[in-house]
Amino acid sequence: MISGVYLGDITRRALYRIAQEWDVFGDVASHLDVPFILSTPMMAAMHEDDSPDLREVARILRENLNMPIVPMRARRIVVAVCDIVTRRAARMAAAGIVGILKKIGRDGSDGVATGRTKAKPKRTVIAMEGGLYASYELFREYLKDAVVEILGEELARNVVLRTFEDGSGIGAALLSAAAARSLNQ
Description:
The protein is mainly alpha-helical. It has helices spanning about 5-20, 40-45, 55-65, 70-105, 130-135, 135-150, 155, 165-185, and strands at about 125-130, 160-165.
């Protein structure tokens, strides 16, 4: 549950729970019980709202969740929840990426961490696709930070995250080319 399909609803669920436990939204929080009413792009827009009065947060809550008046304290809570959900998703995605890299021996260490080699670590490029990574700047930042945190700065320099369009099409073409090559040998 770390993809763009779910992050908005995870945020909505957390906000709904907060609304049930504490009176921060008042009586207008009834729409928070509607599944998927808060999309990830809306969540990202609220999270990235850097206006002093968090007017984008207020606008999204007013127009999409029928919450006409949301106190500043509640808007700050919304941004904090968006931040927590986004950080969690980015850290989980980074853990998966690094886990796969370690499993296939492409985490950039090549024995460097153990001191067993003098070879320069290999560079690995990770092709990232999808609106979450391409459009959500804070998610991208948090993902990169998490990769650095897991691998350490030195090894993380050898892992490059790049946005690619049509990654599944490119992957299919590469697999086809590899299969055709092996058949011709």
